[in-house]
């Protein structure tokens, strides 16, 4: 059974992806176990940007089942509309009109149960793709990519995780930012969660929300501070008061930011920063 580590953050821009790709690289260098990076930020996957020498191993479309209403059989009783918890069905009996909004449908099947007239049948809709990449040195990256405009991130993330290719000892989930359903789906089977934050008022506020979420779902976690030296000491006071492990910190550095902007953050990480990631790897070894 793979050891699963999710990298999350309460807000965007904290350096979550920077941390995820560097931790992945550090594990590959400092731990004699196979590791796979999984980009679960399906609305804007960008882990691949840091591995330019990639090749596609496989790609598959992700489809979900949606209902289609046969208006020739439909009596327009509106029972299916009443059953739909996601307001995906619109019915106007006076106009003999019925339709399904595929972007609101969650494939729950309630409408099929509701209909007593065999007026609803299944069809499918493609919501995105799952791609498996070879990123060099026998390393693997899997990515979900949501169709633009689709709100069904959670369904795609679930499919991505269910279709991981190959046997790996460690999985690194790069989660979407925030605390909504896609994040909950990403961390649902994680053995440990690392929260990446920044020492700013916004960073601390959203960190607190994410800590509340992880405690609600009973997930063990620690915190990594990026851009240390900016803002104030509130984040450290919060971690001490709540008895939360500080796994490490990376000082704010224009050089480091420059490497990130050019996509070289993995290949050219400064030695003093590489040591910080190695310390996080040693922390994870103790958990596993």
UniProtKB/TrEMBL annotation:
One Gene Ontology molecular-function label: iron-sulfur cluster binding
Alphabetical UniProt keywords: Iron, Iron-sulfur, Metal-binding
InterPro entries, A to Z: 4Fe4S_Fe-S-bd (IPR017896), 4Fe4S_Fe_S_CS (IPR017900), CobQ/CobB/MinD/ParA_Nub-bd_dom (IPR002586), P-loop_NTPase (IPR027417)
Keyword Cell membrane applies: no
Keyword hit for Nuclease: no
Source organism per UniProt: Labilibaculum antarcticum
Domain 4Fe-4S ferredoxin-type positions: 65-94, 96-125
Official protein name in the record: Cobyrinic acid a,c-diamide synthase
């Amino acid at each position: 059974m793979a050891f699963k580590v999710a990298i999350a953050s309460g807000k965007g821009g904290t350096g979550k992806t920077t941390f995820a790709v560097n931790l992945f690289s550090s594990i590959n260098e400092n731990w004699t176990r196979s590791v796979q990076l999984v980009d679960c930020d399906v609305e804007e996957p960008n882990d691949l940007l840091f591995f330019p020498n990639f090749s596609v191993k496989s790609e598959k479309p992700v489809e979900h089942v949606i209902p289609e209403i046969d208006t020739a059989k439909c009596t327009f009783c509106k029972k299916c509309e009443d059953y739909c918890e996601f307001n995906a069905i619109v019915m106007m009996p006076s106009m003999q009109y019925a339709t399904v909004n595929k972007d609101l449908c969650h494939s729950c099947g309630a409408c099929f149960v509701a209909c007593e007239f065999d007026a609803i049948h299944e069809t499918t809709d493609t919501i995105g793709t799952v791609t498996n990449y070879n990123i060099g040195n026998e390393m693997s990256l899997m990515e979900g990519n949501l169709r633009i405009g689709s709100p069904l991130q959670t369904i795609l993330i679930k499919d991505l995780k269910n279709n991981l290719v190959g046997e790996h000892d460690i999985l690194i989930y790069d989660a979407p930012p925030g605390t909504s359903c896609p994040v909950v789906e990403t961390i649902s089977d994680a053995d440990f969660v690392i929260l990446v934050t920044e020492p700013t008022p916004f960073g601390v506020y959203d960190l607190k929300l994410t800590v509340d979420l992880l405690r609600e779902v009973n997930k063990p976690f620690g915190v990594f501070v990026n851009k240390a030296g900016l803002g104030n000491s509130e984040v450290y006071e919060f971690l001490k008061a709540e008895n939360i492990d500080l796994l490490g910190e990376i000082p704010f550095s224009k050089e480091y930011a420059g490497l990130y902007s050019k996509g070289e953050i993995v290949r050219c990480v400064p030695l003093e920063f590489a040591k910080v990631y190695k310390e996080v790897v040693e922390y994870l070894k103790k958990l596993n």
